[in-house]
Amino acid sequence: MSDAVAQETVELAPLQQIIDEYKGQRGVLIQVLQRAQETYGYLPPEVLKAISEGLGVPLSQVYGVVTFYAQFYLTRRGKHVIRTCDGTACHVRGAAKVIDAIQKELGIKAGETTPDYQFTFEVVYCLGSCGLSPVAVVDDQVVGRLVPEKMLQIIRDLREA
Q: Where do the domains of the chain lie?
């Protein structure tokens, strides 16, 4: 990781606008966290601290909510997010080979992000598209009937775009 990435600072002005919209309202922590994550792509410590202070909610409560719900991310994610299913139908139809190919191509394991922040790779256990198995969701697009070669081509096309 370069020093520029390691020392990246977070501009809090957009967050302050979000906090101002909800200030004084009760029960808005999740909405503020969702909007903040939409703005920043994840929830860095500076953002969580500012939300805590801005809403008057203990920082421990903010972290409690963020770590309870799987929709929130505490680490920076890649520009492209690949979620590959390894549920029963997908597994039986070869998801393990697709997962293996992705990990080798990207040089990361499931749950990780490439050092250049281009790709985040996750393995999930149901995407609700068993009829298309093995299936993945790439940047919110469902891709079915995967074989390793097809998945590798998708990754290579994303790199070139």
A: 3-68, 80-160
The pLDDT tens digits of the residues spanning 107-134 come to 999 999 999 999 999 999 999 999 999 9
List CB contacts of 135: < 8 A, sequence separation 6 or more.
84, 85, 90, 127, 129, 142, 143, 144, 145, 146
pTM: 0.80
Q: CA-CA distance, 16 to 50, in Å (whole number)?
A: 8
The domain 80-160 is placed in CATH, from the list 3.40.50.12780, 3.40.50.150, 3.40.30.10, 3.40.1190.20, at 3.40.30.10
**Residue range 39-60, pLDDT digits in tens:** 999 999 999 999 999 999 999 9
